[in-house]
Amino acid sequence: MSDVLEVTPYDTLGGAAVLRQLVDRFYDIMASDPRAAGIQAMHGKDTTLIREKLFEFLSGWLGGPQLFIEKYGHPRLRGRHMPFAIGESERDQWMLCMLQAMAEIPMTEELRNHLEEAFMKTADFMRNH
Prior knowledge:
Blueprint: H1 9-13, H2 15-32, H3 37-43, H4 48-61, H5 67-72, H6 77-81, H7 88-103, H8 109-125
Helix pairs in contact: 2-4, 2-7, 7-8
């Protein structure tokens, strides 16, 4: 019997360093693209803490270290986002920023397709209006 190590999306992406680039680029796009003004207003000007939280969440979500859970417990994504009115427009703005950030990060087509589908499913689940 042999041990088979599963390669996670986190590993395939390139681990913490590349994930950090993705998260930082996501928020940079959000801050600079007028098409994302709606969700930018929800986040405020100082995105230092939310950048770290998204990085920590995505680390575990992609199969890497469970940084968010270790610090804050279960993500409870919908509950944490309930104070914000999230409809199709906000979902689409979030996806616009994430897809553009992903386009700037080298990754396999298979990983890109997997992440696009997973992000869209999650972003759509966050809608509460």
